[in-house]
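Sample pair:
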Amino acid sequence: MAETAAALRTVAHNVRAARTRAGLSLEELSRRAQVSKGALVGLEKAQGNPNLATLVRLADTLGISVSALMQGPPEGRVRVVSADAVAPLWTGAKGSEARLVLTTSGPAPVELWRWQLQPGEEYPSHPHQAGVVETVSVTSGRMTLVVDGTEHLLEAGQTATFDGDTPHAYRGAGTGTCTLIMTVHLPAGPAPTG
């Protein structure tokens, strides 16, 4: 419980800081991200429980990665993340889950995700900002990747990539759990001013 409260405080600080850097009022960020002002106020006060879709919309609107909203200050030149140290950002009713493992630094960061999809369970994703490219690599089982209404069956050992600025979804297929690694390549942000 203490870890969850600390994580929420980090997200609150990072959302507020990114909103301030972008010069956006609460009202304007709420409008652009399609997140209620009340939810945004609560989030900036480290209250509530934002879901993955809310974090994705806020990150896209602010032009940063989801993990930039969630991580504290850098810890050094090498960052090692244990699988059990990363809480799921999405869990499905049948046991599916998505974990954001880490994000690389630099002008065009890459998010690394671990997913488990149960048969028939689906996660629909909102379109991301222009320039986002996703890659999914199935390590076991089968999944259906839906991009702009077209279904693509992927099996263990197969990898697909697509532009993330269109509606897309991930669905477990077959009879067993599908595990996959996903990378989300974010476009380069604006050059720092100063």
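The chain is about 25% helix and 30% strand.
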